[in-house]
Amino acid sequence: MSGGLTALGDSFVEGRGDDKIGGGYRGWVPRLGGQLGLRPAAVRNFGVHGATTTAVLESQLSEAVSTRGALYGVVVGVNDLVSDFDADRFQRNIRTIFATLRAGGATVFTASYPDIPARLPVPDRFRALLRERFVFANSVLAEVTADTGALLLDIAVEDRWARQELWTADGLHPSSLGHRQFAAGAAELIASTTATTVAA
């Protein structure tokens, strides 16, 4: 099926923090699809808990491209930053993901990384190190999105994303309110920066 919204990434994309009655998660992906007027069948979510940029390259990207989506959303990288971090690999993976998705002419959007280290229960020295990594990662995203023409929802500079009610107790995942806020921000970004019709 051509058209629609396809999302790739980690648990932020999977929808963790936005529990559904009866089990599972809703998250910002179907919320955004609804705001764009897409049928549920035209919204595909490949997000997986724990996914790194390498995992997206190896396990999500080719299948996502095969959907021939008109719109792709990608949020991934936090697991790289907090665990097995390699700056060169991170930068290379991010560039490959966005260049591949943009090669077909689709609209692609992502988001910068907010100050997640501020909420994590880690020693101050490690928090400082994590913040350096997050600053680096945001610079990579800014450069790659500019180079490829992808859209960047810069939530790292939005004060509202420091509000506790937008996050779950673990400090890593958005709350239900956070997912709704992200979907609204993404819809506004898409509407204001592209005239592409995401047809279902």
Automatic annotation (TrEMBL):
InterPro entries xrefs: GDSL_Rv0518-like, SGNH_hydro, SGNH_hydro_sf
SUPFAM superfamilies associated with the record: SGNH hydrolase
Domain SGNH hydrolase-type esterase span(s) in chain numbering: 7-180
Source domain of life: Bacteria
Name listed for the protein in its UniProt record: SGNH hydrolase-type esterase domain-containing protein
Organism: Nocardia callitridis
